Amino acid sequence: MKNDPSKVDPLKDAFEELNLDDKAAFLVRAAFSTASTAVDEIGAKISDLIDTIAEKQANAEDTGENVQSEESDPPEPEGKTE
Q1: Each residue of 43-56: pLDDT tens digit?
Q2: Rg (CA), the chain
Q3: How many CA atoms lie within 13 A of 50 on its CB side?
């Protein structure tokens, strides 16, 4: 994703004008906001995975099937290279 310089440059200029305490506060808030977003996204993925497993378990109990399958293995992390 490429940043639009017309939007980024004014933000850089505004950041440069802040005093050290305000810069530090901004960076801390940005870091916590980023971490919070990541935790929310991971939580949503885990919730979806739990729902999928529960649904498979319920379906298997209804049909008497064994739930163990390759599909129940957790997905590989995105961006993982070997």
Answers
A1: 999 999 999 999 99
A2: 22
A3: 6
